[in-house]
Amino acid sequence: MMIKKLFLLLIIGWATIGLSWAQGVSTGGSYFVELYNGERIYARKLQFKSPVFKQNFFLLDDSLRYAPETVKYFQNQEGYFARVNAGRRFSDFAQREQAGRISTYFVYRMDYNSFSPGIGIGMGRYGMGGYGMGGYGMGGYGYPSQRRVYYFSKEQGPLEPLTYKNLRVALSDNPGSMESLQDYKRGQNIQTGMYIAGAGFIIAGMQQQFRGTSSGSSISPLLLVGAGITLLPQIIKLVKKDKLSEAIDLYNYDPR
Fold first, then answer.
1. Residue 111, CB-side half-sphere exposure with 13 Å CA sphere
2. What pLDDT was estimated at residue 142?
3. What pTM did the predictor assign?
4. CA distances from 12 to 6, 8, 18, 25, 161 (A)
């Protein structure tokens, strides 16, 4: 009886080892590219190559090559990426930031600020733009700045720009998410109104300042009021959760 048990345990052990070995051979590593035909190719090493005067390609384990336009998803040491543009560059893929029923992705984009100074407005983590004073460009080109552009995917579907309008459609079956989106829209309207009001005070203060320059007057109070009103939305945003990300979190938390 004891010999039979030992023999049975030996068979189970060899079967387990064989299964693990077979899985290791089939995957070949923790990185992969997934093609549009659904095939997923694993590798221990994955690189994106951009040779001069030649087509870009993904290189797996220093041997297999795949054209970027055939790849829908890939995972390397930096994370998980999904195609967002139908091109042949690395920047045509967005990196996943949050996984769930609603997954969020981002890409980096370069902006060149205009010649004249200005104020940009945005709201929250996924807001478009962001508050900041524009700079004076050199030679008419401005200076470059990098920003994140966000996308989202519902239930592993295609990537869409992460905007209030698109989220209203995607999250429409979750009342909690819709309430957060309504709060976002309401706050966005209030914030825009504050920026407009602050800009009005600043312009009035500058006019008052110029008129009082010859008399040696101090800084116009209107300038200080305008600056305070303009900065107020940013202070509120620092202590208040972004409603777009809150809407996504509520949707992902829903167990259905």
1. 15
2. 57
3. 0.67
4. 10, 6, 10, 20, 51
Nearest Cα to 166, choosing from 179, 148, 154?
154
CA distance 150 to 84: 11
3-state secondary structure at position 24: helix
HEC-encoded secondary structure of 135-183: CCCCCCCCCEEEEEEEEEEECCCCCEECCHHHHHHHCCCCHHHHHHHHH
pLDDT for the residue 28: 58
What is the number of helices (H) and of strands (E) in the chain? 5, 13
Q: Which pair of tokens denotes residue 239? A: 């202590």
Give the position of tokens 């384990």.
Answer: 61
**Which tokens sit at 31?**
């990185």
At residue 204, the pLDDT reads 78
CA dihedral 163, 165, 170, 174 (to 10 degrees): 110
pLDDT at 109: 85
| pLDDT given for residue 256 in this prediction | 65
> Which segments of the chain have a pLDDT < 50?
2, 4-27, 115-124, 128-141, 214, 239
Residue 32 contacts residue 40 (beta carbons within 8 Å): yes
Task: Give the C-alpha separation, 201 to 38, whole Å.
Answer: 58
Per-residue burial over 103-128, b = 16 or more CB atoms within 10 Å of its CB, e = otherwise: bbbbbeeeeebeeeeeeebbbbbbbb
What pLDDT sits at residue 5? 46
